[in-house]
Design a protein that fits this description.
Elements: E1 2-5, H1 13-16, H2 24-35, E2 57-60, H3 73-89, E3 95-99, H4 101-111, E4 133-134, E5 140-144, H5 149-154, H6 159-174
Parallel strand pairs: 1-2, 1-3, 3-5
Antiparallel strand pairs: 4-5
Length: 177
């Protein structure tokens, strides 16, 4: 499974060198990954902290920390070739877990560029929502609200909600082709 976030946070991944490491979004995400068997420990503070992921890779739609911590569509599209190359190298990925609507949109654009799709847009365009699923594409997509403080502190995203999405993503990844 490939988990797609937005961009490296200026005080998290940009500082530590690993996506979702060293910030509160990562604290929430890695705790969930640990509870659901995707990570060997519930926290990540530095690149050499012993964290190991299982059946999971985490990346970002935008590859550098954007101004005001808000990536733009231009940045997303500029980084798309790197995401395309990364996904083509990950031959066992069957599910894209999209953390937020921005990542969902980036994943739809990404899928259109791999496996000879010649950058054709996916139509009709599936709508993002927490727990939204799309299958019948080269990859299954599943949506999850982003684990930002804005979402977790307000209860828009809770531990049971993210755990349910992660369990469902695992189910999708284990389905026969």
């Amino acid at each position: 499974m490939l988990t797609l976030g937005l961009a490296p946070a200026a005080h998290g991944a940009n500082r530590t060198g690993r996506v979702f490491t060293g910030d509160r979004s990562g604290d929430f995400l890695f705790a969930a990954l640990s509870r659901t068997g995707f990570a060997n420990q519930p926290q990540s503070h530095a690149r050499d902290d012993g964290l190991e992921l299982s059946d999971m890779r985490i990346t970002a739609a935008v590859r550098c920390a954007p101004p005001a911590n808000r990536p733009t569509p231009v940045e997303r599209d500029t980084c798309l070739p790197w995401s395309t190359r990364e996904l083509t190298l990950l031959r066992n990925v069957r599910v894209l877990l999209c953390l937020g609507a921005f990542a969902w949109d980036a994943a739809l654009r990404l899928i259109a560029t791999v496996d000879g799709a010649d950058s054709r847009p996916i139509s009709p365009r599936p709508r993002f929502g927490h727990g939204a699923e799309v299958s019948g594409l080269p990859y299954s997509l599943i949506g999850c609200y982003h684990p930002s403080q804005q979402n977790t502190f307000t209860g828009k995203l809770t531990e049971p909600m993210i755990d349910a999405v992660l369990h469902r993503a695992r189910e999708l990844a284990q389905q026969p082709i």
